[in-house]
């Protein structure tokens, strides 16, 4: 005990200026966030996902990763929201079960803490506390930043994590001898992962920090005062903190997302059959207990692997192609074959052995393997899937696909198809239900059965066109099919077979999909729609907001530079008066527009019209 020096004391330094700025930020962002008690702007969009989270129903948001939705869902969970609200229009009044304050408080807190982060960032860049205060006052009274922080939106959350990431890296870079240096680097990696997890727009800041890290690491490698071992450790730690950690966290967001959302929902059809079958309810109730191996005589529905323009199933019905199309081209006038985006009894096909007339599965079943030649018989109309050298109705460069009808007009049947299992592990792989991605190659013409994506006219009931593509190359999801529903056929007679096709399939076994398979499919859907978040108008607002913050920092830097050139006290006093006048004008602008920012007090139409300072501003009036 003699080594312990008494008394033990702790010295705490409190930046009262920073504390005051934080308090003002909390007041301006949190004041009256429960008002209006109605759906505002994109709350109608995020609220739908919020309800699905509360009910643990699967969904996919093609505009970005799930972490942002989970942040909003946390507020809903803490507020006791049960998910029961119809998010169908902007302006809809919230019911009593919706905890409005809890839904909006997390974005409001994130927006509030952006202000002290901006203060610390300006100081960390080497400018004075006076400059940091000026930057904070500009951001504090910026009405647009306040508005987007006060509602159930993700922009303030994104900006918070991006500012924290930049600030943490600057702390790390400057604190060369501090024991907390590596802590700041870890915080930077975590913040980058969270920013990207909220919106993919966060990648721009992430790439900026990676570029800075690359430059600083290169300088580190050239430092001859450091030993080889220390350099390797420094590079390795940077790689782990800024690359490995964000990747692990990014995958972790999806793991939590998929763990929470295990029930079947409205977005199932965007995913593959295997993905749908792994969810509780929906397709899983249908596909559980189905035979795994597709055999000769199997009754199947064939779903296209592609989900564009919409997921659909190979389909036929008792309607023929018109003899002539609107442009004057002729057709075979045989039975239409389409891709139908809804489950229907006309989606069922029978896998038939070309050398036999039987339509039932033998005992034991004879499985269909990669490279086998088969025929596909439409279950309800008994027409064979056929393609020939006749131009498709909407894609004249491809072949027409039809249900063959013998009109005795020198147009023989060409209904043999070769099974090509794309994701096979051996050359004699068995065709598997749900799991196998199959390409059906026409024996006579080598054309591939493919979804063109074009919609047929009224005579085709607006269903999607299926063609035979003779110039098919590489891996194209539109030419891949998988068996979704499957059973072994037991009825040879047409009427008995129709009754069998209309009856539900048997269910008793569950088939699971690994997390990584789900993750890769879900990410491919998100990254396949990058055009959405690049072109989505609200993401333009994020870019404008970040530009606003950047210009604020640049303005403060120029003010500091100009102030340093002023030598006499009189000049500096005059400059201070100018700065004070500018801040006062900013406050006047904030005060005048505060009714639009906070939605209160209520203004008349004339008072609202007086706030329309520019012709480009549109103020929408809602009459009660």
TrEMBL record:
The chain crosses the membrane at residues 67-87, 108-130, 150-170, 182-215, 235-262, 540-566, 573-590. Its EC number is 2.4.1.109. Signal peptide: none annotated. It is found in: Endoplasmic reticulum membrane. It catalyses: a di-trans,poly-cis-dolichyl beta-D-mannosyl phosphate + L-threonyl-[protein] = 3-O-(alpha-D-mannosyl)-L-threonyl-[protein] + a di-trans,poly-cis-dolichyl phosphate + H(+); a di-trans,poly-cis-dolichyl beta-D-mannosyl phosphate + L-seryl-[protein] = 3-O-(alpha-D-mannosyl)-L-seryl-[protein] + a di-trans,poly-cis-dolichyl phosphate + H(+). SMART domains: MIR. The keyword Ligase does not apply. GO terms for cellular component: endoplasmic reticulum membrane. Gene3D superfamilies: 2.80.10.50. It comes from the Eukaryota. Keywords: Endoplasmic reticulum, Glycosyltransferase, Membrane, Repeat, Transferase, Transmembrane, Transmembrane helix. Residues 291-354, 365-422, 427-486 form the MIR domain. It is a multi-pass membrane protein. Its main location: endoplasmic reticulum. One of its GO terms (molecular function) is dolichyl-phosphate-mannose-protein mannosyltransferase activity. Pfam families: MIR (PF02815), PMT (PF02366). Pathway: Protein modification; protein glycosylation. Belongs to the glycosyltransferase 39 family. This is Protein O-mannosyl-transferase 1. It comes from Cyprinus carpio (Common carp). The lineage of its organism: Eukaryota, Metazoa, Chordata, Craniata, Vertebrata.
């Amino acid at each position: 005990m003699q080594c312990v020096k008494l008394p033990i004391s702790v010295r705490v330094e409190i930046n009262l200026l920073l504390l005051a700025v934080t308090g003002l930020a909390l007041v301006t962002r949190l004041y009256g966030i429960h008002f209006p008690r109605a759906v505002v702007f994109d709350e109608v969009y995020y609220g739908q996902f919020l309800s699905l989270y509360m009910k643990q129903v699967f969904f996919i948001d093609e505009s970005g990763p799930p972490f942002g939705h989970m942040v909003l869902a946390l507020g809903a969970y803490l507020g006791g929201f049960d998910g029961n609200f119809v998010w169908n229009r902007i302006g809809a009044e919230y019911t009593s079960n919706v905890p409005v304050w809890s839904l909006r408080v997390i974005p409001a807190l994130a927006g509030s803490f952006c202000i002290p982060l901006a203060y610390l960032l300006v100081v960390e860049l080497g400018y004075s506390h006076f400059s940091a205060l000026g930057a904070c006052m500009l951001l504090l009274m910026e009405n647009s930043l306040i508005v987007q922080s006060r509602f159930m939106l993700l922009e303030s959350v994104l900006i918070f994590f991006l500012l924290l990431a930049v600030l943490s890296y600057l702390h790390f870079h400057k604190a060369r001898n501090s024991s907390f240096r590596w802590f700041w680097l870890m915080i930077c990696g975590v913040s980058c992962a969270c920013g990207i997890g909220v919106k993919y727009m966060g990648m721009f800041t992430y790439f900026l920090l990676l570029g800075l890290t690359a430059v600083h690491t290169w300088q580190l490698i050239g430092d001859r005062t450091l030993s080889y071992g220390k350099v390797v450790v420094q590079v390795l730690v940077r790689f782990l903190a800024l690359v490995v950690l964000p990747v692990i966290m990014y995958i972790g967001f999806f793991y939590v997302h998929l763990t929470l959302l295990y029930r079947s929902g409205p977005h199932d059809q965007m995913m593959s059959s295997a993905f749908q079958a792994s969810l509780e309810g929906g397709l899983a109730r249908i596909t559980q207990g189905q035979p795994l191996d597709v055999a000769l005589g199997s009754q199947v529905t064939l779903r296209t692997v592609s989900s564009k323009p919409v997921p659909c199933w190979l389909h036929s019905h008792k309607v023929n192609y018109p003899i002539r199309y609107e442009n004057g081209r002729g057709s075979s006038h045989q039975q239409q074959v389409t891709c139908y985006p809804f489950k229907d009894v006309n989606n069922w096909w029978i896998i038939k052995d070309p050398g036999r007339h039987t339509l039932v599965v033998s005992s034991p079943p004879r499985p269909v393997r990669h490279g086998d030649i088969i025929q596909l018989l439409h279950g309800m109309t008994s027409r064979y899937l056929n393609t020939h050298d006749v131009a498709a109705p909407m894609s004249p460069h491809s072949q027409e696909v039809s249900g063959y009808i013998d009109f005795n007009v020198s147009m023989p049947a060409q209904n043999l198809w070769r099974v090509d299992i794309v994701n096979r592990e051996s050359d004699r792989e068995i065709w598997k239900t749900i799991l196998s991605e199959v390409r059906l190659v026409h024996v006579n013409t080598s054309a591939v059965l493919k979804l063109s994506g074009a919609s047929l006219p009224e005579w085709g009931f607006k269903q999607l066109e299926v063609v035979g593509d003779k110039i098919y190359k590489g891996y194209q999801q539109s030419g891949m099919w998988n068996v979704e529903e499957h059973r072994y056929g037991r009825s040879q007679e047409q009427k008995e077979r129709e009754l069998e096709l209309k009856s539900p399939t048997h269910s008793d076994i569950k088939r699971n999909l690994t997390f990584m398979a789900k993750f890769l499919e879900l990410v491919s859907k998100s990254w396949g729609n990058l055009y959405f978040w690049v072109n989505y108008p609200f993401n333009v607002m994020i870019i404008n907001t970040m530009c606003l913050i950047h210009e604020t920092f640049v303005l403060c830097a120029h003010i500091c530079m100009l102030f340093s050139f002023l030598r006499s006290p009189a000049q500096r006093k005059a400059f201070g008066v100018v700065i004070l006048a500018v801040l006062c004008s900013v406050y006047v602008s904030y005060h005048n527009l505060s009714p639009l920012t906070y939605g209160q007090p209520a203004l008349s139409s004339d008072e609202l019209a007086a706030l329309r300072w520019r012709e480009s501003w549109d103020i929408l009036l809602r009459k009660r």
